[in-house]
Specification:
The structure is a single chain. The strands form 3 sheets. Strands 7-6-5-4-8-1-9-10-2-11 form a 10-stranded mixed sheet, sandwiched between helices. α7 packs parallel to α9. The protein is α/β, with parallel strands linked by helices and about 500 residues long. The longest helix has 27 residues. It has 15 helices and 16 strands.
Length: about 500
């Protein structure tokens, strides 16, 4: 025992004296590879492990059995661009300035956007990591200017075709058509990077940001056997028990649920290929993989088809953590910690041996990973700071959520009062308890915690800060690259003829 305790000390002393490269290599080998996998518009209950017996996700379910499923996970902001910017910068959209898909602070639409922020890939580089990007980007910052060493195929806009997409590659925004199914193309790139690492292509630990575009609409086409996998099923048959509304409100609801699940199952297969590459290589003993959705998807609940809103279908996301015993303990655990996407950046940097920047707002999940218990991760704050959105039913808000309760506070000029729900008794968020005597103490505690978080993160005003411009308007004018169907499902036409016209327009825009 004494020898085992002495060896690291002696090695460290020798390294300090000799400064040999082998010492740096030894330190690099001790750091875990970290893979972040992001899905797109993925409901939290779009997983078998979430109790959904209709959707087929065998690979994600296996990942959860071998790791931890975070049942209460939420996203910092439920819209694609702002969500990704928050994971990138470690701070809320009210501070990083990518307020929504519609409105942004002017400086975040430049190639050097976020140059004044401490960003996750650069922090991983500082910790000695080789950093790689594959998949959907959806930001105007150039990936190579925020710390990515290797950039494979990447998608510039917020959405694109599921087959033969136009993608950029490397340090260029030039688009070229790439033959094949989009999710498969991204998985192929990821597998290539992982195999190179496993075969000793680099002695540095790896940080891989892998962002799929499924199950973002239009949900397909998908390869066999997923194309047609759910044919013959109705919306009422497919909707999970956690969908607290009528799933068949629209004339195309059956088709929408079938296609949505097809996209999820096809995505699951590609995640499985990535995970098999890790499991069946030297990476298996020292790699952390975190799977998370960029936002949820309402699927017709409350007459909404998109995200944005502070309700469960929009705000909650699937999250699974998988890794070696040294990082992930209590495997197969359903974790009840109120984890949020903004907690991932400081967690990754801490695991990398670095020090998370002081401005980052998230909490480190490493204790939760270790034993599966909530520790002090009992609540999470999310927001939607865009008070200029053209859709009438979308309001700017701040929300604080625990596994049992949720408090929503809307922009003072929204005309909408606060909402408080008992999620344990009312998971469908039907009864607003705000101001009721029976929840007075809960309301007081949540308001205090929300206020403290806003003060801590500099979120002290309701209106968006700085000079605000419209990303979507610039996209229509051709001054930035983006897709016009980023959020089209929020205002989805109710009849087939109107939807066909909308799809034709989107195809022209692409």
């Amino acid at each position: 025992m004494k020898k085992l305790q002495w060896v690291p000390v002696a090695l460290a002393f020798a390294c300090a004296l000799t400064q040999r490269p082998v010492c740096a290599q030894n330190d690099a080998h001790s750091k875990p590879n970290i893979i972040l996998i992001i899905s797109d518009d993925h409901r939290w209950d779009g997983l078998g492990v979430a109790g959904n017996s209709q959707v087929k996700t065998p690979n994600l379910d296996q990942m959860a059995r071998e790791g931890q499923w975070f049942r209460e996970a939420t996203i910092q902001v439920p819209t694609c661009t702002a969500s990704r910017a928050s994971i990138l910068t470690g701070i809320p959209p009210s501070e990083h300035g990518f307020y929504s898909n519609n409105w942004q602070r002017q400086d975040v639409l430049r190639p050097d956007a976020f140059s004044k922020n401490e960003v996750l890939p650069e922090e991983m580089q500082k910790a000695g990591y080789h950093t790689a990007l594959v998949g959907k980007w959806h930001l105007q910052a150039e990936p190579w200017l925020v710390g990515f060493d290797t950039i494979k195929h990447w998608m510039l806009p917020g959405a694109g075709p599921y087959r033969n997409p136009k993608l950029a590659s490397g340090k260029s925004r030039e688009l070229n058509t790439v033959k094949g199914f989009t999710q498969t193309i991204f998985a192929n790139d990821a597998v290539e990077i992982l195999k190179q690492k496993a075969d000793g292509g680099t002695t540095q630990p790896l940080f891989l940001w892998l962002a799929f575009t499924a199950p973002h609409s239009h949900f397909g086409p998908n390869p066999k056997p997923f194309d047609g996998m759910y044919d013959g099923k109705t919306a009422k048959q497919l909707a999970p028990s956690t969908f607290h509304d009528d799933p068949a409100k629209r004339d195309d609801s059956d088709e929408a649920w079938r296609k949505y699940y097809e996209a999820i199952s096809a995505l699951d297969a590609e995640v499985g290929r990535v995970m098999d590459t890790v499991r069946n290589s030297s990476l298996s003993t020292n790699t952390l993989v975190v799977f998370i959705g960029d936002n949820g998807y309402m699927m017709g609940a409350r007459d909404m088809w998109g995200k944005y809103v502070p309700y469960e279908g929009s705000l909650r996301v699937p999250m699974i953590a998988w890794g070696p015993d040294s990082i992930i303990g209590s495997k197969g655990t359903t974790v009840t910690a109120a984890a949020n996407s903004i907690d991932l950046p400081p967690t990754f940097v801490q695991l990398a041996g670095g020090t998370p920047p002081a401005e980052w707002a998230g909490r480190e999940l490493t204790p939760v990973f270790k034993d599966g218990k909530p520790h002090n991760i009992t609540w999470a704050v999310s927001q939607y700071p865009d008070h200029k959105s053209p859709q009438k039913h979308i309001k700017a808000y701040r929300v604080i959520r625990t596994p049992d309760h949720k408090l929503i506070v809307f922009h003072p000029e929204s005309g909408q009062g606060p909402e408080l729900y008992n999620l344990a008794k009312d998971p469908g968020e039907k009864v607003n308890l705000y101001g009721k005597p029976e929840v007075a103490q809960v309301q007081k505690n949540l308001e205090m915690q929300l206020g403290q978080f806003r003060e801590k993160t500099g979120d002290t005003q309701w209106d968006m800060k700085g000079k605000v411009v419209s990303f979507r308007q610039m996209a229509r004018q051709g001054t930035v690259q983006a897709s016009e169907d980023d959020e089209e499902e929020q205002e989805r036409p109710k009849n087939k003829k109107a939807r066909r016209r909308q799809q034709q327009q989107q195809q022209r825009n692409q």
